[in-house]
Amino acid sequence: MRLRHGPVAHAWRSLLYRLPKVDLHRHLEGSLRLSTLVEIARDHQIHLGLDADLEALLRFTASEPASFQRFLSRFQLLRLFYASQEAIRRMAYEAVVDAALDRVRYLELRFNPAALAQARGFHLEEVIEWVLDSVAQAQQRFNIQVRLILTIVRGEDPKIAWQIARLAVAHRPHGIVALDLAGDELCESATELVPVFQWAREQGLFLTVHAGEIGPSANIRHAILVMGAHRIGHGIQAIHDSDVLELIRERNVPLEICPTSNLQTGAVASFRHHPLPDLYRLGLKVTLNTDDPSVSDTKLTDEYLFAMAGMGLHWQDLLRILENAAEAAFLSPEERRILIQRLRQEIQAIGRKKAKEEVEGAKSGQVAPFSPFLPSGC
Ligand SMILES: [Zn+2]
């Protein structure tokens, strides 16, 4: 991506990398390392066809035409790789490690247990336990706090959706905090799944619903008013509907925005046309997230860079958006307070360190390329 290159982008990127970050919208299935997929293919004799280029099959490139269906098709391919308990455990572990290495301090990782289980006939519950176990191990070894969200896709068999919801509730003490509705919002209805989500909410789970990503703003209204969503995945089509904007603002519903994904699915034409800055200036609780870092070839650091270099947001705006994410975390009020405090302390420490470096750079006659800690640094 062009915005990642050049000396100024490089300087900003290194600073944004050092920010402690929060990712509320990241799919496990979209976070798999290419190198791991190559090894799984080798170990499990997964044949993709002669001369198949796994990277080209998995990753969206800048030259590929944006398309929601092409984006979703990646996840059909990935089902081939959910080949064993070891493979699934490894994928979950590495997804958390990769987030931690990008200095994501709090991650909500979502996955569709039906997709992981059905590929090779595993039980839903064992797949959930493998992921929970691996995520717990990664959390012990790295500086990251993780909560899990179970995804149900639109059009799923309601019997399976009920099983997933019941398992989510049963595993709440082990870190499952929410249900997510994903899938094709243009072609599949959510109607049959509404009772499942309503029941899960009554049991104390949080709800997040992919809506108004590529589909109409009416899907956002339905998610909030009928399904009872606490947060909306994407929700960017709200920009075209003043009533839905008002509903989101009135109820303070956070939007989980994933800019690179929005470009690749064709939901927006370019970063310059992305509604994130407008939604932010309207006072909505917007957050920045990755969606599918491996498929999209991005990191959360990059998404912050694109919001700045591609959409014109300033450093202080990014800090506000980061704090929005912490405030929107599916945690208890006390856990949220601790998270926010921890992030603030770490950001202050970066500020002090950076100021010291700038002073020392000035003393030695070096001219700093930018001054991000000034109020309007960009
Ligand atoms: Zn998503």
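^ zinc ion complex. The pocket of zinc ion is lined by residues 25, 27, 182, 210, 233, 291 (CB under 6 Å). Residues 367-378 have pLDDT under 50 and may be disordered.
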